[in-house]
Specification:
The structure is a homodimer. The first copy, chain A, has helices at 9-27, 34-41, 55-78, 84-100, 103-111, 118-144, 153-165, 179-193, 202-207. Chain A folds into two domains: 1-52, Arc Repressor Mutant, subunit A; 60-207, Tetracycline Repressor, domain 2 (Orthogonal Bundle). Chain A is mainly α. The N and C termini of chain A lie far apart (45 Å). Chain A has nine helices and no strands. Chains A and B meet through α1, α5, α7 and α8 of A and α1, α5, α7 and α8 of B. Chains A, B: It comes from Bradyrhizobium ivorense.
């Protein structure tokens, strides 16, 4: 089937990606058939190949684009911040906020690394390494400046990323806590965890509680 | 095929469970066929039903047994400890150690909740809730005693569990750090994170580094 350049190309591709994310999230990559994917989008199975090369390429693109988005937006969030404490606070706030809205992509990026072919796996691990390195560098700078106390930078990097990403398993919009309250709770854990307790905002530190009005929370 | 009570019953069941864990870990529950599972064990597909009722029951048993083991062993680890700081240290040490050896079971328990039928899902979420509640109670007691400073108990509980479980994604035996060094690094992050920095062991606190001889580390 010839590759067509039609006006609906990008729209169809976007629909394929969205359906792909949902199907992989719900059943896993191995269990997703291209026939089912096409049916979800409302096109013939053969027409998929006008938009994607293979199922593997679709998975790779989804995971790769997710991490590239993360990297690009993180660099915007960190821009202009030179102080490690400010950088770490910005990192926490960015990572938590981003992960509140990308639960499915995050799940796929974590659970379907197993399904990437070796070349694709290596590329994704390298990208993920670049993201981890941003956090590792902040921690390293904070230790150098004497404002952080960290036993092992690598373990702390992985542990903090896991802590922040864990949000994806329980966060639901409209729950007990506001976004700001959730960010503040994570900020306290991470900044205190690396020994920068004095850097946590006054309101949280003084009372040990969230400001009044932090409303009603969710775990579905 | 009639159900047989043979001397190899438990052995075969154990082989089925092990193969099931591996296949689900590698390809996902939906993609695991019972035919393939039987072939891995070296029995006829029909013979599976001498040992398990359904594929769903196998998944449920694997996940449920994993969390029941966790709960039972946690209670042993906490037995006789009344001080929240000691309890939290014991919780961290137990959870990290346990998760060093159960990477596949943990991955399945987290990634295949989606594949549990509603009744089974509810049972597993309740069991998981009981485990989470152990940690939440330790945090609550520590706040009451004035030794912990926690913004939100529920968020801190989920975040600390995610932090500790994150180990499964990178830990490999024989890496750069000893088990003890990895436990110490996690202990520092968690105890400091809840404001119990003064409770962290002197050696780690004073130097901010691991003892010399903490050897050579891994991420594959």
């Amino acid at each position: 089937m010839a590759r067509t350049i039609g006006s609906h190309g990008p729209t169809t591709l976007e629909a394929i990606r969205k359906a792909g994310v949902r199907l992989i999230y719900e059943n896993g990559y191995e269990a997703m058939s291209l026939r089912k994917l096409a049916a979800e989008v409302g096109i013939q199975a053969g027409s998929l190949y006008n938009h994607i090369s293979t199922k593997q390429d679709l998975l790779f693109d989804l995971v790769q684009d997710h991490i590239n988005d993360l990297l690009r937006e993180l660099d915007l969030a960190l821009a202009g911040k030179a102080d490690p404490v400010e950088q770490l606070r910005a990192f926490v706030s960015f990572h938590v906020t981003y992960h509140m809205t990308r639960k499915r992509e995050v799940f796929i990026a974590n659970s379907e690394l197993r399904s990437l072919e070796p070349k694709n796996y290596d590329a994704v691990v390298a990208l993920r390494g670049a993201y981890e390195q941003r956090l590792a560098q902040i921690l390293t700078d904070g230790v150098s400046d004497g404002v952080f106390e960290v036993v092992d930078i690598q373990v702390a990097t992985f542990a903090i990323l896991a802590l922040l990403t864990g949000l994806c398993t329980w966060y639901r919009p409209g729950g007990r806590l506001t976004r700001e309250a959730i960010i503040a709770a994570h900020e306290k854990l991470v900044l205190s965890g690396v020994g920068a307790a004095q850097a946590v905002t006054g309101e949280v530190r003084e009372t040990g509680r969230l400001p009044h009005g932090a409303a009603a929370g969710a775990r579905s």
